[in-house]
């Protein structure tokens, strides 16, 4: 019969280790920071700065340089307690992060997400007009069907202002006012050609 200790040891070897990702690291470091700040509250700002340095390096370069730096940094701190969390260890920084530790063909999900957000906001911040502004009077109705009038502006609720990518003109007459304030579009056609017939006594 196999001893219980050997069984537990075998189970531990087969157990999958947590993924070495930035998300798992942030969760673990948050727990570590809480334990440290319970005894040393003054270490809070330094721990926050260290947390940001690791997170920023992973965002910028990806790879595993940030993870290797963190391991070596904490091992050195065990031997030299006078080290501070908010001071970078130059030798380790140059070794793991200074020359870039990201493989040429690697990419992180966060980087792709950031690029997608940058493209989205670039599209949102396009100027509203390219070329001539909308005309009034003759030709205005033709312009109305060719442009993209801002619906929020016409309802009086656009928060983008001058950087809105949609045209800030009336969707009814292409004038320089919201459709909610348009008088031309609200006019009702009165019946014409009617005559009043007086009754004969």
UniProtKB/TrEMBL annotation:
GO molecular function terms attached to this record: zinc ion binding
Domain called C3H1-type: residue spans: 144-171
Keywords: Metal-binding, Zinc, Zinc-finger
Membrane spanning residue stretches: none
Organism superkingdom: Eukaryota
Zinc finger (C3H1-type): 144-171
The name this protein goes by in its record: C3H1-type domain-containing protein
Organism: Pleurodeles waltl
Upper lineage: Eukaryota, Metazoa, Chordata, Craniata, Vertebrata
